[in-house]
Amino acid sequence: MMKLRVLEEYVVKALMVLACLIVAGSLVGVVAVMLVKGLPVLRLKMLVQVSQGGSSLGQEGGILNAILGSLCLGLGGTLGAILLALPIVSFLQRDYGGRTLFGKFTRLALDVLWGIPSIVYGAFGFIIMLYLGIRASLLGGIIALTLVELPIMARGMDEVARLVPMELKEASYAVGSTRLEVTLKVTWRQCLPGFVTAVLLAFGRGIGDAASVLFTAGYSEFLPRSVMEPVASLPIAVYQQYLSPFPEVQQRAYVSATTLLVIVLLVSILSRLSAARFARHVVR
Amino acid sequence: MPHISIRNLNVSYDGHSALQNITVDIPDGQITAIIGPSGCGKTTLLKSCNRLIDLTDGVKLSGEVLIDGANILDPSVDVMQLRRKMGLLSQKPYPLPMSIYENVAYGPRIHGLRDRRKLDRIVEQCLQAASLWGEVKDRLRAPAAKLSVGQQQRLCLARALAVDPEVLLADEPTSALDPQSAQLVEKRLTELKGKYTILIVTHILRQAKRLADYVLFMYLGELIEHGPAADVFTHPRHERTRAYVGGEVS
After folding, report:
1. How confident is the model at residue A57 (pLDDT cuts 50, 70, 90)?
2. Average pLDDT of the residues in A201-211
3. According to the model, what pLDDT value does residue A58 have?
């Protein structure tokens, strides 16, 4: 009997390690392929020049337009989603409307929205833009990405916020706080590290998403200058370069993809470092 | 007129009665202990006094809780001001997610105090009153979460004192603490009575005997007996009180 329990322990642990290996291995594999294929064609000037002769045909020039475009789209969409997610998550707390039918419906709606493919958001955004008479632009892309990122961010934040012990809030109410003071000064501070994770997950999804910006942001050879003009983005650049009939241009897709990966990595590290400063106050 | 005067208080959660017809005057400037077996409504009674009970779902209250003569169950009462008058110590200490200094300054700040020097003075006074000052004066900016549990409970006491309350409500304030910290907290409470009316819920009979001037014994949501501690502990009038105080029921 004892032996079986020990065996159980080994087998289950082995399965856990295997699962983690699959994840870590996938990342290593993806990075390796990108580096092997991308490094030989990577030239520094690719990162500091805009594309020339169209992204799918141009063998000269760089991807600076796509890098900056993606940063504007990703940061804009993430900012938009934060501005919506924070009030939603605060309302979903039991201090406000979390236990009401409306609160429960909102949570359900976020779950459903999470499952919607991003191409649908793109099409939806496109229809709204047609209706409003806006053409494919940075603004359109930001709106579409805000919609893509919102459910991920809001549900992630909600799960963290629900873990805040009621007694912690009571401690704040007991000295005479209003609900808003409890939310801003206690709940948000307590949740900050978890909120950062939720924002990063959403940012990673947003900046890497091609389908939602395909119609809404369009593509441009130039650096983003106005929110009303189309912008390039790395996912679309990867897509177009990879479809190119020229093998040289196809290889450039790997450089674009690597750049995208590095951006996500850098943003993750920087946010983690800054969040660690606040995490020391978290009450366990 | 006593600070806290409870008249025919009934509380129910989702239709289940938790307190029935509680009527009692809490003596001023003394320590009143609420004792009784688990689930008898001690905490409910305590939380009715600062309306933290409002945060519980499905709660219904009737009757009156008069604080300084005004019924605080009246919906028009400003609960923020009410709670300011009623400091709270909970079972497990919950420091707020901020520094030691900010924890104590939190209350005065939300009530509008901005003057840095006044805040400094309040923080020092309250930490001293909670006998924590000596241990933390060199690391006021350190996270409160890093303190030991015993220190955290004293910090919570300092935080409660910082808004200058009239009453201290304590819900088993030593149950999560080691014996030494528990002793410190008890000592502080004894020293603070007189200045504050203290209402303490406790499971520990010996603690009630050590601290209390006045005792309420509750059983299944009813107030069975109340009176000066000496009377209740030595000559309980009611059968159930006798059994509980005698250690037959816990």
Report:
1. low
2. 90
3. 63
Contact B125, B182 (CB under 8 A): no
In angstroms, the first-to-last Cα distance of chain A is 38
Spans of all domains in chain A? 1-38, 45-281
Residue A46 pLDDT: 83
Chain B residues closer than 8 Å to A186 by CB: 96-97
Could you tell me which residue, A95 or A92, shows the higher pLDDT? A92
Neighbours of B162 (CB within 10 A): 27
Asked if B100 and B155 touch (Cβ cutoff 8 Å), the reply is: yes
Say yes or no to pLDDT of A62 above 90: no
- The kind and range of the H/E element at B49 are none
Predicted confidence (pLDDT) at residue A264 exceeds the cutoff of 70? yes
The mean per-residue pLDDT over the stretch A93-116 comes to: 91
Sign of the torsion formed by the C-alpha atoms of B13, B18, B21 and B23:
negative
**Tokens representing A169?**
């809030």
Helix (H) or strand (E) holding B26: strand B16-26
Q: How far is CA B245 from CA A69, A195, B171, B220, B236, in A?
A: 75, 50, 19, 16, 8
Mean pLDDT of chain A: 89
**pLDDT score, position A245:** 87
Give residue for tokens 């009450």: A283
Q: A140, A220 in Cβ contact below 8 A?
A: no
* pLDDT reading at A56 higher than 70: no
Which residues in chain A have their CB less than 8 angstroms from residue B110's CB?
175-178, 181, 185
Low-confidence ranges of chain B (pLDDT < 70): 1, 248-250
Contacts of B50 in chain A (CB under 8 A): 174
All residues at 6 or more sequence positions from A11 whose CB lies less than 8 Å from its CB, including other chains: none
The answer to whether B90 contacts A167, with C-beta atoms less than 8 Å apart, is yes
Q: Which of residues 129-148 of B touch A (CB under 8 A)?
A: 143-146
pLDDT tens digit sequence for A12-25? 999 999 999 999 99
- Which CATH fold topology does A45-281 show? MetI-like fold (1.10.3720)
Interface predicted TM-score of the whole assembly (ipTM), two decimals: 0.89
d(CA A61, CA B101): 57
**CA-closest candidate to residue A134, choices A142, A124, A126, A122:** A126
Long-range residue pairs from B64-70, CB within 8 A, at least 24 positions apart, any chain: B64/B5, B64/B6, B64/B7, B64/B8, B64/B9, B65/B4, B65/B5, B65/B6, B65/B7, B65/B9, B66/B4, B66/B5, B66/B6, B66/B7, B67/B3, B67/B4, B67/B5, B67/B167, B68/B1, B68/B3, B69/B1, B69/B5
Nearest CA in chain B to A93: B55
Prediction pTM value: 0.85
